[in-house]
Amino acid sequence: MRPTNRCLLQASRAALGHENPLGLPKSGTIPRMQRGLPQKRAIKDVRKVIAVSSAKGGVGKSTVAANLSLAFARLGHRAGILDVDIFGPSIPTLFNLSEEPRLSSNNQLIPLSNYGVKTMSMGYLLGPSAPVVWRGPILMKALQQLLHEVDWGGLDVLVLDLPPGTGDTQLSVAQQVVLDGSVIITTPHTLSLSDAVRGISMFDKVSVPVLGLVQNMSVFTCPCCATQTHVFGTSDKVKQLCAERQIEFLADVPLHPRIAEDAQEGKPTVVAEPGGERAEVFMSLARRLGEKVGL
Ligand SMILES: Nc1ncnc2c1ncn2[C@@H]1O[C@H](COP(=O)(O)OP(=O)(O)O)[C@@H](O)[C@H]1O
Ligand SMILES: [Mg+2]
């Protein structure tokens, strides 16, 4: 039987029009809002934390983050992924998971696992169609719980799938959690690149090392004639940006229908075609990031 719930689970269900929208207990394990900026805290039982970010939506953060966590697991690390995109969670779909998480005896959320990776997402707590209508302090409380009230049970590496932008959530994560670094995802399109620059500046401001850039969806190779099309413009622009900002160009993920199809089937590339060249891009990204953060 499930333990009595005192977490986001109930909270989120009661959220609309309820006096105590998060269903928080009067006392207990859930931290109260603090005055001023909260302290930077390490995520408990997790050795390394890598944030996958982009200031632009739809550039492939969740796809890369999911495959990266799976690649870490394949390399033998105890890996997890935390979906910090509260308004648009993707991890339940990408990992084909939808159960309600259980609570541990000390009221921590127990992650759901698939393919050897532990996962937690607001999507598990709210269900697939519920809109999140939180802002301000309630959003911050939900975020705090995702960041600090999950029983990871010992991880070598946790990947954070951040929402797009450089707003409240990203800043709060960067300021409240000890991060080993961030990885920024971008396409070579000018609109995405200028947002990538904003992302780099945000992490600089909060003293989080930018481990590098991942270029996504730059090249499509025609399966019939092998012609290569640079869908979002030439890939040189991302490399130029890396050179200008002295940031490593970490990986170049091609645009390929299988990457999108496998993702929506809940079996991302690293597990769907483990020996393939596309999976190898994510494997070498994981190896390089592992070296950089000292895994
Ligand atoms: N390399 C790729 N090749 C093909 N489709 C991709 C690739 N990367 C991402 N996609 C697709 O692009 C869309 C946006 O990706 P997603 O990971 O959800 O982006 P974000 O998290 O940045 O919003 C999804 O439909 C995803 O399947
Ligand atoms: Mg996403």
Keywords, please?
two-stranded antiparallel sheet; alpha/beta; Rossmann fold; binds magnesium ion; binds adenosine-5'-diphosphate; disordered N terminus; 295 residues; 8-stranded mixed β-sheet; nucleotide-binding
What does this structure look like?
One of its GO terms (molecular function) is metal ion binding. Pfam families: ParA. This is p-loop containing nucleoside triphosphate hydrolase protein. Belongs to the Mrp/NBP35 ATP-binding proteins family. The chain has one domain (40-293): P-loop containing nucleotide triphosphate hydrolases (Rossmann fold), CATH 3.40.50.300. It has eleven helices and ten strands. The protein has helices at residues 8-13, 61-74, 91-94, 122-126, 136-148, 168-176, 190-205, 236-245, 257-264, 269-272, 277-293; strands at residues 46-53, 79-83, 112-114, 117-121, 155-161, 181-186, 210-216, 219-221, 228-230, 249-253. The strands form two sheets. An eight-stranded mixed sheet has the order 3-4-2-5-1-6-7-10, with helices on both faces. A two-stranded antiparallel ribbon has the order 8-9. Helix 2 (61-74) crosses helix 11 (277-293). The longest helix is centred in the C-terminal third of the chain and has 17 residues, at 277-293. The structure holds adenosine-5'-diphosphate and magnesium ion (MG).
